[in-house]
């Protein structure tokens, strides 16, 4: 039987009851009494129904506090169904709340900013990254128009033009963002912001590097080309001039070679595919080698000495040889004849350190912070004269970064400089003893 039919059975039973009571009273006590009894039974039933309706109305007002009884007749069924509905609704609501909180958590972990707005751009919700990117505050700004909160003219143009299939690059001063508006659900829009500041900086660095490298290579090439042209157009040059031209060309060729070699070293040091190959470095041997190279470079023009008292290290021998060697070669090249250069390898509380000091020309304080930038030189012509590429200290910085070491530079103009490499305690190689 269908549920509808089932519903009508108790109703029919009730009417049968009223009729039965009426007919019984009529046969026993006459028609008037019969009618009165039927009316009385009907009234009682109506009152009982009204009672249940009242209970239901109270429950609907406050389903958490009021309890519905089991009911009687058809009411039992109605109450049971209502309870079931309410249980399901509560379950759905809990699931929804849980889902929403999971969604918010995921959104707040996102590295990109997400802003949800209604169709007229009133802020409904945003994640913490969007607060940082766009200077919003969810608590304060909820319900405000986003175009009043993000006051960049570019952003307002983007909204007005409505060409949302293309992203907009937004410069906020401290950041560069790529933002994009995505309409969804036809009454809402999402704004997504992605921070590309770092990309921009890297891109700029790469462009600068290429521009500088090309410039550095062009100068010696121009010189070589010039002499080659002279050789081609003036066959009658005397032997001495020709020899001098050849010497100058060789010098420029060597300069280009140094430059390319340094650029390759730097590229390799920066590459993630080229991890540090760690070994135990015999520091005594290494410093002596570097000292000997310094002596050769100076060819007797300076007094060079070394003090070796520190422990052996873990790291790359080749890389540290290049880093410390660079400092020593700078010390020799930027120290006039008769000056002193010392290399110290000592242990300190903070860890071992290598100090390369000279009594040379020194560096003005305003240059010191920039010395490790690629191609940065205090005096371009002097650096060229001394075979410098301007990449030496950039290489030093990279090698030290790979060894978790720090570079400190102390210098006084006209008096000399100290380049200090501070290694961490953890870089010391375990001793065999
Ligand atoms: N010991 C030093 N004394 C004075 N100036 C130095 C010294 N070491 C480095 N410099 C300055 O720092 C600049 C950058 O050094 P570096 O990167 O090694 O390039 P370069 O190829 O010119 O030596 C040099 O051009 C020079 O001006
Ligand atoms: Mg150098």
Q: Which regions have little confidence, pLDDT < 50, spanning 5+ residues?
A: none
**Overall CATH class of the largest domain:** Alpha Beta
Number of domains: 4
Q: What small molecules are bound in this structure?
A: adenosine-5'-diphosphate, magnesium ion
Q: Could you tell me the strand content as a percent range?
A: 15-25%
Note the main sheet: 5 strands, antiparallel
What percent of the residues sit in helical stretches (DSSP H or I)? 55-70%
**Alpha-carbon distance between the termini?**
96 Å
Name of the CATH architecture of the largest domain? 2-Layer Sandwich
Topology:
Blueprint: H1 3-29, H2 31-61, H3 74-109, E1 113-118, E2 123-126, H4 128-134, H5 138-141, H6 146-149, H7 153-161, E3 168-171, E4 176-184, E5 188-195, H8 197-233, H9 239-270, E6 279-281, H10 283-298, E7 303-308, E8 313-315, H11 317-333, E9 340-348, E10 351-358, H12 365-368, H13 380-385, H14 392-402, E11 406-412, E12 416-422
Parallel strand pairs: 7-9
Antiparallel strand pairs: 1-2, 1-5, 3-4, 4-5, 6-8, 9-10, 10-12, 11-12
The structure holds adenosine-5'-diphosphate and magnesium ion.
Residues 326, 329-330, 388, 392 line the site of magnesium ion (MG).
């Amino acid at each position: 039987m269908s549920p509808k039919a089932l519903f009508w059975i108790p109703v029919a039973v009730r009417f049968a009851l009223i009729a039965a009571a009426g007919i019984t009273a009529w046969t026993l006590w006459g028609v008037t009494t019969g009618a009165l009894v039927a009316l009385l039974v009907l009234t009682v039933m109506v009152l009982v129904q009204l009672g249940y309706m009242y209970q239901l109305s109270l429950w609907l007002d406050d389903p958490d506090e009021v309890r519905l009884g089991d009911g009687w007749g058809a009411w039992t069924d109605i109450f049971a169904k209502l309870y079931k509905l309410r249980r399901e609704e509560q379950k759905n609501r809990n699931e929804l709340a849980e889902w929403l909180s999971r969604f918010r958590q995921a959104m707040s972990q996102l590295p990109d900013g997400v802003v949800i707005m209604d169709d007229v751009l009133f802020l409904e919700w945003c994640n913490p990254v969007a607060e940082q990117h766009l200077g919003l505050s969810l608590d304060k700004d909820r319900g405000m128009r986003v175009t009043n909160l993000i006051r960049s003219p570019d952003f307002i143009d983007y909204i007005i033009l409505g060409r949302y299939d293309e992203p907009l690059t937004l410069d906020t001063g401290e950041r560069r963002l790529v933002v994009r508006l995505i309409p969804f659900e036809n009454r809402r829009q999402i704004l997504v912001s992605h921070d590309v500041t770092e990309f921009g900086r890297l891109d700029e660095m790469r462009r600068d590097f290429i521009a500088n490298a090309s410039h550095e290579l062009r100068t010696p090439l121009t010189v070589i080309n010039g002499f080659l042209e002279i050789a081609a157009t003036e066959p009658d040059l005397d032997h001495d001039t020709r020899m001098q031209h050849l010497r100058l060309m060789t010098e420029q060729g060597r300069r280009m070679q140094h430059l390319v070699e340094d650029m390759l070293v730097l590229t390799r040091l920066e590459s993630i595919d080229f991890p540090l190959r760690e070994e135990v470095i015999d520091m005594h041997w290494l410093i002596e080698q570097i000292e000997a190279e310094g002596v050769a470079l100076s060819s007797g023009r300076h007094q060079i000495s070394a003090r070796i008292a520190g422990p052996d290290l873990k790291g790359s021998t080749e890389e540290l040889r290049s880093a410390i060697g660079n400092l020593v070669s700078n010390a020799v090249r930027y120290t006039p004849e008769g000056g002193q250069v010392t290399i110290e390898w000592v242990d300190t509380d903070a860890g071992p350190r290598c100090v390369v000091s000279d009594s040379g020309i020194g560096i003005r304080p305003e240059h010191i912070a920039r010395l490790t930038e690629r191609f940065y030189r205090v005096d371009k012509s002097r650096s060229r004269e001394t075979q410098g590429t301007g990449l030496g200290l950039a290489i030093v910085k990279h090698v030290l970064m790979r060894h978790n070491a720090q570079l400190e530079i102390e210098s006084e103009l006209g008096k000399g400089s100290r380049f200090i490499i501070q290694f961490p305690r953890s870089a010391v190689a375990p001793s065999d003893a």
